[in-house]
What does this fold into?
Amino acid sequence: MNTRYLFTPESLCNSAVTVTFSLIPSTGPGEERMTENMGPRSRTSTRAPSAIPSSFLVRMAIRISRARWYSFARRVFHYQNGSRSDDIGSNPFNSASWMYMELMGLVFQIVVIAYTLSVSKEEKPVWPMRTWVTGYGIGCVLNLGLLFWRYWLFCLNQIGAELPSNIEESRNLQMMNKSRTFMELFFAIWFVMGNVWVFDARFGTFRKAPKLDVLCISLLAWNAITYSFPFILFLFLCCFVPIISNLLGYNMNAGSINRGASEEQILKLPSWKYKHIIEPDLEQGKLIVDSSTTECCICLAKYKENEEMRQLGCSHNFHMKCVDQWLKIVSCCPLCKKELER
It folds into this structure.
């Protein structure tokens, strides 16, 4: 009987060579005769597999599965294809890191468009490329203002942490969503018009306006990539990642599970001692006690005087001991599931 020992991918990270071997116990004289009479197929079946994945590839797969961009890609995929909850804070595109990336992309496009328009004044394109580029630049400027509006709503006012607390915030959120829908519709129509004008085979636009033509093709290619991003993400996570996981014997999706927060991350969160405060209702002449601020949702116990409290980045409060233990296991809020910034 063959007893096979396999090393796990975790242990392979610290080793230089991947080892897979078999221990075959000593056989008696009768068993030796049986092995001699066995065919070539039976003999080759006892050999170790010849194709052994390299430990370097396994280490690379582990690093990729634990990278921040891979975890973000999985969050985007689950948000786009899963059942979306009413909690708008679960949208990964409303995070501060993603908004910074959008800011860099918009500023880069605006700078390139302004520079190209300034150096291509003498060009005379067949189609109104200058008008298309100008309209695209104006759309980027409007998107820049819309981006600051989103940052003010979701990052500064912390609307994403919980439902809007008043009518004004709810109206601002609705207006912002309508503005985003309008801008997406504008860029979709502008993208189709740019393809019709630029890729018309009847006229040679590159000879008369080379700079504007290259700029238009670059912007159209960038928009094509952004529009096909969900399909590219689907191919990566549903086709490429499972194939690599089967070849290497390491589940990349299991390695991307969010780990607990570090001590440094937990200590950066604000803390204080609890004091029971009752707010009077001036209109009704009564006392209001908010149950969400008097009870810890982790241990389900009411707060007591001078108990140590801790507040997360989403403005939710908990017992310090409860939330510290929680964050060491899962680095996200127990209520809104918003992750800690690393």
